[in-house]
Amino acid sequence: MVPRVTELDIPRLLSGIAPSWVSKAGCAVLGIGLAVILRLIVDRIAPGAAPYAFVYPAALLATLLGGWQAGVGTLLGTALLAWTFVVPRTSPLEGYTQLQAASAILVALTVLAMIAVGEVFRIAARNSVAERSAKLAERELLFRELQHRVNNDFTIVNSLLDLQRRRSSDPEVRQTLEQAMGRIRSVARVHHHLYTLPDIGAIDLRQYLADLCAALSEAAFPPTGLHLRCHCDEAYMPRSRAIAVGLVTNELVTNAVKHAFPDDREGNIDVRFQQTGEGWRLSVGDNGIGLTQMPSKSGLGTSLIEEFARQAGGVLTLETKSGTLARLDLPASAASATAIPGHGLP
User: How far is the C-alpha of 310 from the C-alpha of 41, rounded, in Å?
Assistant: First the structure.
């Protein structure tokens, strides 16, 4: 609600097009026009009833759109029109009664109080959104700094292993260190694909999951008969939700590698992202030994997966038959089959 109000700040939206006073005057005219239209509609049913009734919503609307100046302008315009054309006079010669004048003054004071409340709310909403935007920008900066430091850590570890490899004269040790370096580079690649998505309106999820699965296949799979297969329908997601889906995929695939194929068993892990009748579904299944017991809710891995699923806006279910199958069901609004370049998704 609060962000919507700030988005309707007409003088700010038109700051580069029209002077502020023009925008505020336009908001006042809009409020007066609204009051006139409502009065014409009511007069068809009950002519002259509640002459000042529409001053209140018109002035409040103008205040929220253009500030207190627009609200006061709307008050003056609508009150004058109501006083001239709607308020009944006792006779053309006697004019208005003292009671009618007192009523007009009371209405004006009440509307001024409403305008003040509307202006306070408008300022508070604007400050709240500005503060939230500043916090989001700070969090994004810290997030990027963290990713930069993690990438540097990968580089340092890889360099240390390379230094040790070059100093060793044992061919077997050198080969082992080379394999470890390759595994670290693969893990760094997974990290890269998980977090470093561009800040654009929509992310091509099919390409994102394909790259992520390729990186996982290099990093997480030992040189045995395990195979990771990935199939994804064409879909586009906002960056934050796509990252959450990637994190869920990473955790589920890693868990399958760790637990589903003991004793160097061969098998397959399938990652699918498909459109369903009710929305979208991410599924990660394997043909391993299945779960001997359901994972503990208090475990860190389970907690992370549930948190990532919540960030993605989906519901996670788990079943075990001939292997384990995890499903993350997302609403239809989570992704789109097509994307307009530069535009986000809801």
Answer: 48
